[in-house]
Specification:
The chain has 272 residues and is of the alpha/beta class. It contains eight helices and nine strands. Helix 1 packs antiparallel against helix 3 and helix 4 packs parallel to helix 5. The protein binds S-adenosylmethionine (SAM).
Protein backbone atom coordinates (compact mmCIF):
# COMPACT_ATOMS: atom_id res chain seq x y z
CA UNK A 1 0.00 0.00 0.00
CA UNK A 2 1.30 3.49 -0.87
CA UNK A 3 2.46 5.53 2.12
CA UNK A 4 0.13 8.40 1.31
CA UNK A 5 -2.84 6.05 1.03
CA UNK A 6 -1.95 4.53 4.41
CA UNK A 7 -1.83 8.05 5.88
CA UNK A 8 -5.27 8.71 4.37
CA UNK A 9 -6.78 5.47 5.70
CA UNK A 10 -5.29 5.95 9.16
CA UNK A 11 -6.21 9.63 9.54
CA UNK A 12 -8.14 10.18 12.79
CA UNK A 13 -10.59 12.49 10.96
CA UNK A 14 -12.76 12.09 7.86
CA UNK A 15 -11.24 12.96 4.47
CA UNK A 16 -12.57 12.62 0.95
CA UNK A 17 -10.33 12.31 -2.15
CA UNK A 18 -10.66 10.57 -5.55
CA UNK A 19 -8.90 7.22 -5.74
CA UNK A 20 -6.54 8.23 -8.60
CA UNK A 21 -5.04 11.07 -6.53
CA UNK A 22 -2.84 8.89 -4.34
CA UNK A 23 -0.42 7.74 -7.07
CA UNK A 24 -0.14 11.34 -8.24
CA UNK A 25 0.64 12.63 -4.73
CA UNK A 26 3.14 9.84 -4.10
CA UNK A 27 5.06 10.60 -7.32
CA UNK A 28 4.97 14.38 -7.14
CA UNK A 29 5.78 14.88 -3.50
CA UNK A 30 8.80 12.55 -3.08
CA UNK A 31 11.37 15.37 -3.11
CA UNK A 32 9.60 17.14 -0.20
CA UNK A 33 9.45 14.20 2.22
CA UNK A 34 11.00 14.75 5.65
CA UNK A 35 11.92 18.31 4.62
CA UNK A 36 11.34 21.52 6.49
CA UNK A 37 8.51 22.71 4.22
CA UNK A 38 5.31 24.73 4.41
CA UNK A 39 2.32 23.03 2.88
CA UNK A 40 -1.04 24.75 2.62
CA UNK A 41 -4.37 23.10 1.86
CA UNK A 42 -7.42 25.15 0.89
CA UNK A 43 -10.64 23.38 1.92
CA UNK A 44 -10.46 21.41 5.12
CA UNK A 45 -13.85 19.78 5.61
CA UNK A 46 -13.49 17.60 8.71
CA UNK A 47 -9.71 17.97 8.71
CA UNK A 48 -8.72 14.42 7.77
CA UNK A 49 -6.42 15.49 4.95
CA UNK A 50 -4.40 17.76 7.27
CA UNK A 51 -3.48 14.70 9.37
CA UNK A 52 -2.72 12.79 6.16
CA UNK A 53 -0.27 15.47 4.95
CA UNK A 54 1.42 15.68 8.35
CA UNK A 55 1.86 11.94 8.53
CA UNK A 56 3.09 11.72 4.93
CA UNK A 57 5.53 14.65 4.83
CA UNK A 58 6.92 14.12 8.32
CA UNK A 59 7.52 16.01 11.54
CA UNK A 60 9.45 18.88 9.97
CA UNK A 61 6.59 19.86 7.65
CA UNK A 62 4.37 22.73 8.71
CA UNK A 63 0.78 22.01 7.61
CA UNK A 64 -1.53 25.02 7.29
CA UNK A 65 -5.23 24.96 6.46
CA UNK A 66 -7.51 27.54 4.85
CA UNK A 67 -11.28 27.23 5.25
CA UNK A 68 -14.35 29.42 4.88
CA UNK A 69 -16.21 27.55 7.61
CA UNK A 70 -15.04 29.02 10.96
CA UNK A 71 -15.60 25.65 12.72
CA UNK A 72 -12.31 24.59 11.20
CA UNK A 73 -10.51 26.74 13.77
CA UNK A 74 -10.98 23.92 16.30
CA UNK A 75 -8.30 21.96 14.44
CA UNK A 76 -5.71 24.36 15.82
CA UNK A 77 -5.92 22.27 19.02
CA UNK A 78 -4.46 19.42 16.94
CA UNK A 79 -1.41 21.46 16.01
CA UNK A 80 -2.47 22.87 12.61
CA UNK A 81 -2.49 26.58 11.90
CA UNK A 82 -5.92 27.42 10.43
CA UNK A 83 -6.87 30.57 8.52
CA UNK A 84 -10.56 31.29 8.10
CA UNK A 85 -11.20 33.10 4.85
CA UNK A 86 -12.49 33.06 1.31
CA UNK A 87 -10.17 31.73 -1.36
CA UNK A 88 -11.91 33.88 -3.98
CA UNK A 89 -10.84 37.06 -2.18
CA UNK A 90 -7.52 38.61 -3.33
CA UNK A 91 -7.41 40.59 -0.05
CA UNK A 92 -7.59 37.36 1.93
CA UNK A 93 -4.59 36.02 0.02
CA UNK A 94 -2.54 39.21 0.45
CA UNK A 95 -3.04 39.12 4.22
CA UNK A 96 -2.41 35.39 4.31
CA UNK A 97 0.99 35.57 2.60
CA UNK A 98 1.94 38.62 4.68
CA UNK A 99 1.48 36.46 7.79
CA UNK A 100 2.73 33.10 6.54
CA UNK A 101 5.44 34.08 4.04
CA UNK A 102 6.22 32.03 0.97
CA UNK A 103 5.24 28.37 0.90
CA UNK A 104 6.41 25.19 -0.82
CA UNK A 105 3.18 23.43 -1.76
CA UNK A 106 -0.35 24.73 -2.20
CA UNK A 107 -3.16 22.19 -2.56
CA UNK A 108 -6.49 23.64 -3.64
CA UNK A 109 -9.32 21.38 -2.47
CA UNK A 110 -11.74 24.22 -1.70
CA UNK A 111 -14.96 25.12 -3.47
CA UNK A 112 -13.71 24.24 -7.01
CA UNK A 113 -15.51 27.06 -8.85
CA UNK A 114 -13.73 28.85 -11.72
CA UNK A 115 -13.34 32.04 -9.69
CA UNK A 116 -12.02 30.23 -6.61
CA UNK A 117 -9.50 28.16 -8.56
CA UNK A 118 -8.27 31.01 -10.76
CA UNK A 119 -8.00 33.53 -7.89
CA UNK A 120 -6.16 31.02 -5.69
CA UNK A 121 -3.69 30.29 -8.48
CA UNK A 122 -3.09 33.90 -9.48
CA UNK A 123 -2.81 35.28 -5.94
CA UNK A 124 -0.43 32.49 -4.92
CA UNK A 125 1.89 32.14 -7.87
CA UNK A 126 4.37 34.73 -6.61
CA UNK A 127 4.40 33.19 -3.14
CA UNK A 128 5.50 29.67 -4.04
CA UNK A 129 9.15 28.98 -3.29
CA UNK A 130 11.50 27.96 -6.12
CA UNK A 131 10.87 24.30 -7.00
CA UNK A 132 7.47 24.33 -5.28
CA UNK A 133 4.07 23.67 -6.78
CA UNK A 134 0.40 24.48 -6.87
CA UNK A 135 -1.81 21.41 -7.11
CA UNK A 136 -5.43 22.11 -8.01
CA UNK A 137 -7.88 19.31 -7.28
CA UNK A 138 -11.25 18.39 -8.78
CA UNK A 139 -10.59 20.21 -12.04
CA UNK A 140 -13.31 18.06 -13.66
CA UNK A 141 -15.56 20.88 -12.43
CA UNK A 142 -14.30 22.80 -15.49
CA UNK A 143 -16.56 20.48 -17.47
CA UNK A 144 -19.50 20.24 -15.03
CA UNK A 145 -22.74 22.02 -15.81
CA UNK A 146 -24.57 21.02 -12.62
CA UNK A 147 -23.97 21.92 -8.94
CA UNK A 148 -23.58 25.58 -9.94
CA UNK A 149 -20.31 25.13 -11.88
CA UNK A 150 -21.93 26.21 -15.18
CA UNK A 151 -19.12 24.77 -17.27
CA UNK A 152 -17.71 24.07 -19.80
CA UNK A 153 -17.21 27.74 -20.44
CA UNK A 154 -14.69 30.18 -21.84
CA UNK A 155 -13.79 31.09 -18.25
CA UNK A 156 -13.34 27.62 -16.83
CA UNK A 157 -10.19 26.95 -14.81
CA UNK A 158 -8.87 24.51 -17.42
CA UNK A 159 -9.39 27.08 -20.19
CA UNK A 160 -7.55 29.60 -18.06
CA UNK A 161 -4.59 27.23 -17.75
CA UNK A 162 -4.51 26.79 -21.51
CA UNK A 163 -3.53 30.49 -21.67
CA UNK A 164 -0.69 29.65 -19.30
CA UNK A 165 0.42 26.96 -21.75
CA UNK A 166 0.80 29.61 -24.44
CA UNK A 167 2.75 31.85 -22.06
CA UNK A 168 5.35 29.24 -21.09
CA UNK A 169 6.05 28.76 -24.81
CA UNK A 170 7.08 32.43 -25.04
CA UNK A 171 10.44 31.36 -23.66
CA UNK A 172 11.15 30.05 -27.12
CA UNK A 173 12.79 32.92 -29.05
CA UNK A 174 11.10 31.76 -32.29
CA UNK A 175 7.87 33.28 -30.97
CA UNK A 176 9.44 36.69 -30.46
CA UNK A 177 7.22 37.53 -27.47
CA UNK A 178 8.04 39.24 -24.21
CA UNK A 179 8.48 37.11 -21.11
CA UNK A 180 5.97 38.14 -18.49
CA UNK A 181 6.07 36.98 -14.85
CA UNK A 182 4.28 33.72 -15.74
CA UNK A 183 6.82 32.89 -18.44
CA UNK A 184 9.63 33.47 -15.96
CA UNK A 185 7.99 31.59 -13.10
CA UNK A 186 6.13 28.50 -14.34
CA UNK A 187 8.42 25.70 -15.37
CA UNK A 188 5.74 23.23 -16.43
CA UNK A 189 2.10 22.30 -16.13
CA UNK A 190 0.92 18.75 -15.59
CA UNK A 191 -2.60 17.52 -16.27
CA UNK A 192 -4.14 14.44 -14.72
CA UNK A 193 -7.71 13.25 -14.33
CA UNK A 194 -9.08 16.04 -12.11
CA UNK A 195 -5.71 17.39 -10.98
CA UNK A 196 -3.68 20.20 -12.55
CA UNK A 197 -0.18 20.86 -11.25
CA UNK A 198 1.66 24.13 -11.78
CA UNK A 199 5.36 23.53 -11.23
CA UNK A 200 7.27 26.62 -10.15
CA UNK A 201 10.77 26.99 -11.58
CA UNK A 202 13.89 26.67 -9.44
CA UNK A 203 15.09 30.04 -10.69
CA UNK A 204 13.77 32.86 -12.87
CA UNK A 205 13.46 31.42 -16.38
CA UNK A 206 14.96 33.08 -19.42
CA UNK A 207 14.60 32.76 -23.18
CA UNK A 208 15.65 29.30 -24.27
CA UNK A 209 18.61 28.77 -26.56
CA UNK A 210 19.00 26.47 -29.50
CA UNK A 211 21.96 24.14 -29.04
CA UNK A 212 24.02 22.26 -31.61
CA UNK A 213 26.10 19.35 -30.37
CA UNK A 214 28.98 19.74 -32.88
CA UNK A 215 28.92 22.16 -35.81
CA UNK A 216 31.65 20.21 -37.62
CA UNK A 217 29.33 17.20 -37.94
CA UNK A 218 26.67 19.14 -39.81
CA UNK A 219 25.96 17.83 -43.30
CA UNK A 220 23.48 20.57 -44.21
CA UNK A 221 20.76 18.00 -44.62
CA UNK A 222 17.87 18.79 -46.89
CA UNK A 223 14.85 19.53 -44.72
CA UNK A 224 11.77 18.01 -46.35
CA UNK A 225 9.18 19.72 -44.19
CA UNK A 226 7.77 21.92 -46.93
CA UNK A 227 8.76 19.95 -50.01
CA UNK A 228 6.19 20.01 -52.77
CA UNK A 229 3.93 16.93 -52.79
CA UNK A 230 1.67 15.32 -55.27
CA UNK A 231 -1.68 15.05 -53.59
CA UNK A 232 -3.47 13.81 -56.68
CA UNK A 233 -4.05 10.13 -55.99
CA UNK A 234 -3.80 8.95 -52.47
CA UNK A 235 -5.36 12.06 -50.96
CA UNK A 236 -8.16 12.41 -53.48
CA UNK A 237 -10.78 11.58 -50.88
CA UNK A 238 -9.48 14.18 -48.48
CA UNK A 239 -9.41 17.19 -50.77
CA UNK A 240 -12.03 17.77 -53.41
CA UNK A 241 -10.52 20.41 -55.60
CA UNK A 242 -10.28 20.36 -59.37
CA UNK A 243 -6.53 20.80 -59.70
CA UNK A 244 -5.90 17.40 -58.15
CA UNK A 245 -3.34 16.22 -60.60
CA UNK A 246 -1.01 19.09 -59.81
CA UNK A 247 2.00 19.03 -57.62
CA UNK A 248 1.28 21.23 -54.72
CA UNK A 249 3.49 23.15 -52.33
CA UNK A 250 3.09 22.21 -48.68
CA UNK A 251 3.15 25.90 -47.91
CA UNK A 252 0.16 26.64 -50.14
CA UNK A 253 -3.28 27.67 -49.08
CA UNK A 254 -4.74 24.51 -50.61
CA UNK A 255 -2.42 22.24 -48.72
CA UNK A 256 -3.49 24.06 -45.52
CA UNK A 257 -7.12 23.15 -46.32
CA UNK A 258 -6.09 19.54 -46.70
CA UNK A 259 -4.14 19.63 -43.39
CA UNK A 260 -7.04 21.21 -41.53
CA UNK A 261 -9.46 18.63 -42.88
CA UNK A 262 -7.31 15.78 -41.65
CA UNK A 263 -6.98 17.38 -38.20
CA UNK A 264 -10.73 18.05 -38.08
CA UNK A 265 -11.28 14.35 -38.68
CA UNK A 266 -9.04 13.46 -35.72
CA UNK A 267 -10.78 16.06 -33.56
CA UNK A 268 -14.12 14.52 -34.38
CA UNK A 269 -12.73 11.13 -33.40
CA UNK A 270 -11.49 12.27 -29.97
CA UNK A 271 -14.60 14.26 -29.13
CA UNK A 272 -16.91 11.24 -29.43
C1 LIG B 1 -14.18 18.81 -0.34
S1 LIG B 1 -14.07 19.75 1.12
C2 LIG B 1 -12.39 19.56 1.53
C3 LIG B 1 -12.05 18.17 1.88
C4 LIG B 1 -10.72 17.97 2.51
N1 LIG B 1 -9.64 18.64 1.82
C5 LIG B 1 -10.45 16.50 2.56
O1 LIG B 1 -9.58 16.02 1.83
O2 LIG B 1 -11.12 15.81 3.30
C6 LIG B 1 -14.16 21.38 0.51
C7 LIG B 1 -14.06 22.46 1.59
O3 LIG B 1 -13.84 23.71 0.95
C8 LIG B 1 -14.46 24.70 1.70
N2 LIG B 1 -14.69 25.90 0.87
C9 LIG B 1 -15.67 26.11 -0.03
N3 LIG B 1 -15.59 27.33 -0.56
C10 LIG B 1 -14.49 27.91 0.00
C11 LIG B 1 -13.89 29.20 -0.13
N4 LIG B 1 -14.39 30.10 -0.96
N5 LIG B 1 -12.80 29.47 0.60
C12 LIG B 1 -12.29 28.55 1.46
N6 LIG B 1 -12.83 27.32 1.65
C13 LIG B 1 -13.92 27.00 0.93
C14 LIG B 1 -15.77 24.06 2.15
O4 LIG B 1 -16.32 24.71 3.27
C15 LIG B 1 -15.33 22.62 2.41
O5 LIG B 1 -15.02 22.43 3.77
Amino acid sequence: MKKIYKSFKNSPKYSIKWNNYFDIYENLFQKFLKKNIKIVEVGIGDGGSLFMWKNFFGKKAKVIGIELNPDAKKLEKKGFKIFVGDQSSPTFWKNFYKKVGNIDILIDDGGHTNLQQVTTLMESINHIKPGGMILVEDTHTSYMKNKGFKNPSKYSFINFTSSLIEIIHRRNPSLNKNLNFIAKKINSIEYYDSITVINIANKSLKKSKNLENNKRLRSYFDDYRYKTVNISKKNKNKISLNFLTQKISKRSYLYKIYENNVIKKYLKLIKK
